[in-house]
Amino acid sequence: MTTFTAPKGIPEYFPPNSAAFLAVRDALTDAARRAGYGYVELPLFEDTTLFARGVGESTDVVSKEMYTFADRGGRSVTLRPEGTAGVIRSVIENGLDRGQLPVKLYYHGAFFRYERPQAGRYRQLQQVGVEAIGVDDPALDAEVIAIADEGYRRLGLTGHRVDLSSLGDDTCRPQYRERLLAFLRSLSLDEDTRERAEINPMRVLDDKRPEVRELVADAPLMVDHLTDSAREHYESVKQHLRDLGVAFNENPRLVRGLDYYTKTTFEFVHDELGSQSGIGGGGRYDGLMAELGGQELSGVGFGLGVDRTLLACRAEGLDVGSAARCDLYGVPLGDAAKRRLVREAGALRAAGVRVDLAYGGKGLKGAMKAADRSGARFALVLGERDLEAGEAQLKDLSTGEQRSMPLDGLVDEVLSAVAKA
Ligand code: HAM
């Protein structure tokens, strides 16, 4: 018989650990909702050109990592490697940019990158993202960063920091690029690195090899060559972050893997995750909307890695998300008791209590074991004799206390026990 395995490099989440996955995703999306962002549900695949143009042909994401295929109509489509290009496409297509600005949107879901799988680096990754479109206000950049920080904090994370930099605007960046390229051309770099420098000189600043690091130690930095307006923007973002109480680390060598960034860029880093330490990142992308055929509107946003944030929580020993599948586990002993408990389970669920039952005619011992494993706080045992007496036994599985309660009015009794628990 053939057995099947999941595609390589894709994390799967199932109970009990999937509860922690959901808790991480929900903490990050809650932070976005509290700042007035509205949910968007977008396609998992788009026209390939959207990403090539939006993210940039020269990036690794586009040139090496996209899942691209021809659909049955012969169109080239790509599984989304990131969320920003799709959001901007949708905003333009649906005319959201003609309403009140900024348009504030959040999303969560799967993204696809054909990377070499390793711990924390997956081919299907999960992100929570926000995009604020249409207002070029440094307070909005600070808001976006503060939302991410707040989301991480709610989970109890303390070991993260945010690296911050400015990539300049469309006046100072091209000038800086030439300056940096001239500097890099004057160095004795290997052939490969030279070629990379010609395509994107900023990436060489991020090279991890010690010999290259040494060579580029005196390279000119973007933050020293900002136009007055880009500098004012950057200073203002930092001031707002201080006002918000969000600590940041200025890192003038911060390089992001996507081409659309302008001015503010940032990356959340967690030091206990080894080489895949980026738990989230983002920045401003003022030219993207026009590049994708829309108005000249600015934007700023982030993408937070849910998988990596979960790994960070584990690394810090945080117990996030309750793994309990239900509040109450019903244990019927005998057919008549089972019929009654099935009925009571329906009524309890309708009243909002999470209920599971021992199915398959388990004996008392096996059923109590299953009750423990379900994570329920209470077991409700109903035997033939209880049924005749018109009562059931409610056992608190955390204290071992047991008491009987009348079957008539069971829903109210259980509701109050669960509320007190
Ligand atoms: P990104 O930095 O490419 O930005 O991805 C955001 C986050 O997704 C990363 O910090 C990381 O936590 C997670 N991530 C990326 N690739 C992988 C992978 N292979 N395995 C596991 N996690 C991964 C963006 O995607 C931008 N769209 C963010 C943005 C929104 N910028 C502005 N708005």
Automatic annotation (TrEMBL):
It catalyses: tRNA(His) + L-histidine + ATP = L-histidyl-tRNA(His) + AMP + diphosphate + H(+). Residues 23-312 form the Aminoacyl-transfer RNA synthetases class-II family profile domain. It comes from Allosaccharopolyspora coralli. This is Histidine--tRNA ligase. L-histidine binds at E82, G83, T84, R113, Q127, E131, R256, Y260, Y261. InterPro entries: aa-tRNA-synth_II (IPR006195), aa-tRNA-synth_II/BPL/LPL (IPR045864), Anticodon-bd (IPR004154), Anticodon-bd_dom_sf (IPR036621), His-tRNA-ligase (IPR015807), HisRS-like_core (IPR041715), HisRS/HisZ (IPR004516), HisRS_anticodon (IPR033656). It is found in: Cytoplasm. Homodimer. Keywords: Aminoacyl-tRNA synthetase, ATP-binding, Cytoplasm, Ligase, Nucleotide-binding, Protein biosynthesis. GO terms for biological process: histidyl-tRNA aminoacylation. One of its GO terms (molecular function) is ATP binding. GO terms for cellular component: cytoplasm. HAMAP family: His_tRNA_synth.
